[in-house]
Design goal:
The structure holds 3 protein chains of 3 kinds. In chain A, 69% of the residues lie in helices and 0% in strands. In chain A, 41% of the residues are buried. Chain A is mostly helical. In chain B, helix 2 packs antiparallel against helix 3, helix 5 crosses helix 7 and helix 6 crosses helix 7. The longest helix of chain B has 34 residues. Chain C has 16 helices and 2 strands. The chains are: A mainly alpha, B alpha+beta, C mainly alpha. At the B-C interface, helix 2, helix 3, strand 7 and strand 9 of B face helix 3, helix 8, helix 10, helix 11 and helix 12 of C.
Chain lengths: 383, 355, 564
């Protein structure tokens, strides 16, 4: 075994065939002639990879446009369930992370080691914050039954808000929490041992894990603010009757304010989600008023009759989860690569001649950001 | 059928619709063009391989040759030819897509793994009966997966896509019986969707006569039950031969038996069970059949008296003579007479069956 | 693998096959040549498996009724045959196996641009293959290789595992393509201008473009399909307002260009073989090179011709038909140029040349029968019948497989340093040629008489033609078996190969057989790849050698402008 490994080392490191000129550039791979060729190859490879990424997403963008053109009313209706404020905030977070990433590339080119570490840490933190906010958005929708078409069972309560935290949020937060504990412990250990370089890795990673929770709290704060705004609005327009269980006042007033308008749609079957939580009086409410826009519904918005509850809106959420889910996976993948860069940055691997990896990851990160720039208006904003 | 075979040629099945003439002619034109080019290419290849082969005393030239005129020639000529083929293909295609006025409309339902046809007077059949020299428009639906309606003799084919209504038309011009195939892969029994002589082209009078007959169900409940069995698609999954499993369990000698359902409970095959299985097929699975393709519900498709008729038919499936008669999947008039379930002899129905 | 002794230019320590030993030296190698050979073994094993399945299918079809397979078993076997052939054999055959070996050597580079990525793409292939095979052998996949919805979302088979296998294989394919594009763009040595590249590299470049641009769409398609099965996202399911035809569009957007992933490298091989074995500079170099790129680009615009009967809008259908015909022209140009290359040359009818002449014969039939299927009115009755089956087998087997075998025989001496038996090589070619035609010519008639594909049972009228086809397939199987025997015999007993046994002028023939670890001891002299004038035959021991260098060696540090 050890013999074989040695042989392989020999294979790759072996410079006996007129490649001795690489000796003073440890970063230059044996099959390249000079750093420039290596950098160009890497850069072209990265651009091609980004092309495949764009095409990968293009499949979903096509699905989006096909079904949007087939069922525009469903799209108009369903997109109002998305929280624009959180979406906009997340857009800002990602844009800022792109800035820090670009700055990091510059630091690598100028061989500013500390600057690079700080920039990478900020980028990682923003990514984690993005995911934290996304976790709030997701769990909120899962609670409301806004699921992909096959399991879609919404109460049709845009702006509805459940009291307390979703149990799903605890599930999603398990790994970040474990990261906080793990990186925290590691960080303290490196401080105790006085291992400066390792603490420069552990510190940013700890901050990253904490940033997830910052994102979660920001998300909760925004949602609570919105819920109270709705509640105020509902109280102004209607004498709210007390909800019997976990539904907030806001939900109920929304139901009430539209029950008269849609009382004729009784033929519609009541949705079955969350029935265990509901009292019988609420069920009868739901069966009469299962689909209405939010309290501030515009006159042109669709009504229940226009939207096929069985699958119409579910299809929107299928596409929403596919697109944002795959995007989130790309963020996660980006975070792993950023962490790898962080380790290499603390080892001072990058310099004026060799900054390729930082540059390539930067390109990738901007693409992930760019895709979000498209997702945000397409899913959240366009009515 | 004999007539149909006589009309077949080396390349084609009988030319039984107006499309056939145009398509067959075009097919042969492309064939001649292709043979010309094929002989040209392979001939040149063989000739060069012999004439310029390495041999003593022969010295070939190895320098580069270029001839732009030649390149342009062999680019332009094939281009012109494929342009013609394209245009001719579009011409025939547009003809196939433009449904003429005054068609006879027939609704087609495809399901795993059977076809059923519904005629303007409400008659339903499992073979497609058509009048000769009359443009036919099919409105096709699928109940489950993709299928494709394909009658080679008509040169007509169209996919049947679930969630869509597909329209196709053709005009038969030759009386006879033709095979109907499913041409889009649809699962286990895809090749059992062959309907041998599944398309019957009558003369106009014959068609009218058939149509009147087809719309009339038998009065005898047992015969009526079998009539429904043949037409409603039961046949494609449940056999009438004891122990023969097509997809679901066989109907032979089932009635009155007790069996285990998928939960291990005992269930009796009785009137109530038949009714439940027809309306809510997923309520009780027979043990061992949980994994097969699921039966569709007939809620809203069968009326109560029809369910009663099916029950009567299933009940008589324990009668040896009856089993014998339906073993081949058909129930002829002679069989009905013999069993005493023909409409004019329903008073003589055996007591064992009516119980 | 033991190459005893050495020729004048090489010692054992340089020979890439034996310069390091042990399992790990192969399993962890970053050498493109070893990765290429590992791919070669992998794809050939996949081919043998799928070939045996094909013989099982043909045997079942001897009779119209059941012979020994149930309907369901038949469906599983044809799914397995198609899926293995497409995903595990044809797509990686030429680009990954021969391409990996040849691209850097032909280019004059030391390795591909990303050797680690290259190795990982091989292991992704292995993982994909294991995933895929275990999924299919476990309970049996019965969807057909196309995974059409809604059947694939409702059947009991292990569709999710199989689609994940396809997903992983897709990454393997993307990484290979990406690697070749970058290699060809950035790793060309001084003097290797674009239009001095061998045509095999042009074909590989065009193939790589398709791999990089089309495969991601397959990735997202199978991902959505898996999500459809597990979460019922409804995009392809009419029960939730989705549409199965959308799936077909997504699927064929990849899978039609994939057809060109399969055939373009085969065409590249034939361009090399026709020129070398006719000892004649290639006729119309630029036309062949541009036609490869044209095929790659047009190939993206014609996917709709798989769906002429699925109910697309009329105008869309007509446009797809027009585009389909446009892609036939570049292929025709290639065939005419290959023929013109033979004209006035010195044709040596050895094994690789026999394969490449069979390629032209079979591919011409495959291409011409595409005319019926591209024309809208004749496609109606022929769609989804045996006519289509025969057509694409003529292209995929008669084209790609025969081209691949020709390429394997042509570069076998280079890869292994061993010659093979010419006589048995030619016999294998003849058997394959005859067996193939007897198998698939009757299927054109079956199709035009109306025999639909994917049928385990059929009506009696078709039996005679089916039997011809089955007997032909046995002959084809024997031919392939003989071909395998030839290469195995060559490994055991083959005579030592000279560096240039055929008289090729491309760079791989300048290095020893097999090449040294770094491919070239010193930067190679970049000549016109099809200039045979300075080569002279010195008997079977020495092969062909340069009598007077066409050009001075290029100094490494001063790139000179490309000019011959």
């Amino acid at each position: 075994m050890s013999h074989d490994t040695a042989t392989i080392e020999d294979l790759h490191g072996h410079d006996s065939h007129g490649h001795g000129e690489h000796g003073h550039m440890p970063f230059l791979a044996h099959h390249f002639d000079d750093p420039e060729q290596q950098f160009d190859s890497g850069k072209l490879g990265m651009w091609l990879f980004l092309v495949t990424e764009v095409l990968f997403f293009s499949g979903m963008f096509c699905a989006y446009s096909i079904y949007r053109s087939l069922h525009p009313e469903v799209w108009t209706f369903a997109s109002q369930f998305l929280n624009e404020t959180l979406g906009a905030f997340n857009t800002g977070v990602l844009l800022f992370s792109s800035l820090s990433m670009a700055w990091g590339v510059r630091c690598a080119q100028l061989r500013q080691r500390t600057g690079l570490v700080v920039c990478l840490a900020i980028t990682l933190g923003c990514a984690a914050m993005f995911l934290g906010i996304k976790a709030i958005e997701y769990t909120h929708k899962w609670d409301m039954g806004l699921l992909p078409a096959g399991s879609y069972e919404s109460q049709f309560l845009p702006g509805a808000h459940h009291e307390g935290l979703s149990p799903w949020l605890y599930v999603l937060s398990f790994v970040p929490a474990a990261c906080v504990v793990g990186f925290g412990g590691w960080y303290l250990w490196t401080l105790a041992k006085g291992q400066k370089r390792l603490s420069e890795v552990a510190g940013p990673l700890l901050v990253t894990a904490l940033c997830y929770f910052v994102g979660v709290f920001i998300g909760i704060a925004f949602q609570n603010a919105e819920a109270s705004a709705h509640a105020k609005h509902g109280a102004d327009t209607h004498a709210a009757d007390k909800p019997a269980d976990g539904h907030s006042t806001a939900d109920h007033s929304a139901i009430e304010s539209h029950s008269s308008a849609l009382a004729s749609d009784e033929s519609h079957e009541a949705p079955h989600g969350d029935t265990s939580k509901e009292t019988s009086s609420e069920k009868s409410h739901a069966s009469q008023t299962s689909l209405v826009g939010p309290a501030h519904r515009a006159p042109g918005d669709p009504t229940e009759a226009q939207v096929d509850q069985a699958g119409g809106a579910g299809l929107f959420f299928s596409i929403y989860y596919c697109m944002t889910g795959v995007h989130a996976v790309h963020i996660l993948g980006g975070m792993l690569v950023l962490a790898w860069l962080l380790v290499r940055a603390t080892k001072d691997h990058f310099n004026e001649q060799y900054f390729g990896p930082v540059d390539y990851v930067g390109l990738y990160w901007h693409l992930v950001d760019l895709i979000w720039i498209y997702l945000f208006p397409l899913l959240y904003l366009i009515k | 059928m004999l007539l149909a075979d006589k009309n077949a040629t080396f390349w084609f099945p009988p030319a039984a619709s107006t499309f056939a003439e145009e398509i067959d002619w075009f097919f042969l034109m492309i064939l001649y063009i292709s043979i010309f080019f094929f002989v040209l290419v392979v001939g040149a290849m063989v000739w060069f391989a012999i004439k310029f082969r390495r041999r003593p005393g022969y010295e070939g030239d190895s320098t580069a040759l270029h001839n732009n005129a030649l390149e342009i020639t062999w680019t332009v000529i094939p281009t012109l030819i494929v342009c013609w083929i394209f245009a001719q293909g579009v011409y025939g295609y547009v003809d196939m897509m433009r449904v003429p006025p005054d068609t006879l409309d027939i609704n087609v339902t495809a399901r795993k793994w059977d076809w059923s046809f519904q005629y303007p007077n409400g008659a339903i059949s499992d073979k497609l009966h058509l009048p000769n020299n009359q443009a036919i428009r099919l409105r096709m639906r699928s109940e489950d997966v993709l299928h494709a309606f394909y009658v080679p003799a008509f040169r007509a084919k169209s996919d049947v896509v679930p969630g869509r209504v597909t329209v196709m038309w053709f005009k038969p011009i030759l009386e006879g019986e033709y095979d109907l195939f499913c041409a889009e892969y649809c699962g286990d029994q895809h090749s059992e969707m062959i309907k041998r002589h599944g398309v019957v082209v009558h003369d106009t009078a014959g068609y009218e006569q058939w149509l009147v007959e087809a719309a009339k169900p038998p009065l005898n409940p047992i015969a009526h039950g079998f009539w429904l069995y043949e037409r409603q698609g039961c046949k494609s999954c449940h056999s009438t031969v004891e122990g023969k499993t097509v997809v679901g369990p066989s109907f032979a000698r089932s009635f009155g038996q007790t069996f285990k359902n998928s939960k291990g409970e005992d269930v009796k095959f009785d009137e109530q069970y038949v009714r439940q299985s027809v309306l809510e097929p997923q309520a009780q699975f027979r043990e061992g059949f949980q994994k097969v393709s699921q039966m569709p519900s007939f809620q809203g498709k069968l009326k109560e008296d029809e369910i009663t008729a099916i029950t009567a038919f299933l009940q008589s499936m324990k009668d040896d003579a009856f089993l014998q008669a339906v073993a081949d999947g058909e129930l002829s008039e002679a069989d009905k007479q013999g069993l005493g379930i023909a409409d004019d002899a329903k008073a003589e129905t055996p007591a064992a069956v009516t119980n | 693998m033991s190459a005893h002794g050495s020729n004048h230019s090489q010692t054992d320590s340089d020979n890439f096959l034996i310069n390091s030993k042990g399992f790990l030296s192969w399993a962890l190698t970053l050498d493109h040549k070893r990765i290429g050979l590992m791919y070669l073994v992998g794809v050939m094993s996949a081919f043998c498996l799928a070939g045996v399945l094909a013989l099982i299918l043909r045997t079942e079809l001897l009779t119209p009724d059941k012979l020994f397979l149930t309907n369901q078993q038949y469906n599983q076997v044809f799914t397995l045959h198609g899926a293995i052939m497409v995903f595990l054999f044809i797509i990686p055959s030429v680009p990954a196996a021969l391409g990996n070996f040849l691209v850097p050597v032909m280019l004059g580079a030391k390795d591909v641009a990303f050797p680690r990525l290259n190795l990982s793409s091989f292991y992704l292939w292995v993982v994909g293959a294991i995933f895929f095979l275990s999924a299919m052998l476990y309970t049996g996949l019965d969807t057909g290789w196309t995974f059409y919805t809604p059947y694939s979302t409702t059947t009991q088979g292990p569709v999710v595992a199989a689609t994940m296998g396809v997903f992983v294989l897709g990454f393997s394919s993307i990484f290979t393509g990406l690697n070749f594009i970058v290699t060809i763009n950035t790793m060309r040595p001084p003097g290797m201008a674009w239009f001095k590249m061998p045509l095999f590299l042009w074909a590989t470049y065009a193939t790589s473009i398709i791999q990089v641009l089309a495969t991601p769409v397959l990735g997202i398609t199978v991902l959505l399909l898996a999500a459809e099965r597990m979460l019922h996202i409804g995009i392809f399911d009419p029960a939730y307002n989705g549409d199965p035809v959308t799936y077909q569009h997504f699927f064929w957007f990849y899978s039609h260009p994939a057809v060109y992933i399969m055939i373009l490298p085969g065409m590249g091989i034939i361009s090399e073989l026709m020129s070398v074995h006719s000892h004649k500079s290639i006729f119309g170099y630029r036309f062949i090179a541009y036609s490869s790129i044209a095929i790659a680009l047009f190939g993206f615009l014609v996917w709709g011709h798989h769906m002429f009967t699925s109910g697309m809008a009329e105008v869309t259908t007509i446009i797809f038909s027009a585009l389909t015909f446009s892609v036939s022209i570049p292929s025709a140009i290639k065939v005419f140029n290959w023929l013109a290359t033979m004209y006035k040359g010195t044709v040596q009818l050895n094994t690789p040349m026999c394969y490449s002449l069979s390629f032209i014969f079979l591919f011409t039939i495959g291409g011409l029968t595409g005319l019926w299927l591209g024309a809208l009115s004749t496609d109606r009755p022929l769609h989804d019948t045996y006519f289509v089956v025969a057509h694409f087998h003529y292209v995929m087997v008669g084209g790609t497989l025969v081209g691949f075998l020709g390429g394997v025989f042509h570069w076998w001496p280079k890869m292994t340093g061993k010659m093979f038996s010419e006589l048995w090589g030619k016999i294998s070619c003849l058997l394959i040629f005859l067996g193939f035609n007897i198998t698939f010519l009757p299927q054109f008639v079956l199709g035009s008489r109306g025999m639909p594909r994917r049928y385990a049972r059929y009506v009696e009228e078709f039996q005679e033609l089916h039997q011809w086809s089955t007997y032909g397939s046995y002959l084809l199987g024997i031919g392939l078996f003989v071909a395998l025997g030839v290469v195995i015999h060559s490994l055991m007993r083959g005579k030592k190969a000279p560096p240039n046994p055929w008289g090729g002028a491309t760079l791989e023939w300048q290095c020893s057989s097999p090449p040294p670890f770094y491919n070239f001891m010193s930067p190679p002299t970049v000549n016109d790849p099809y200039d045979y004038t300075p080569l002279e035959y010195h008997g079977p021991e020495q092969g062909w050698e340069y009598v007077h260098p066409a050009q001075q060696p290029v100094p490494q540090t001063h790139p000179v402008p490309a000019k011959s």
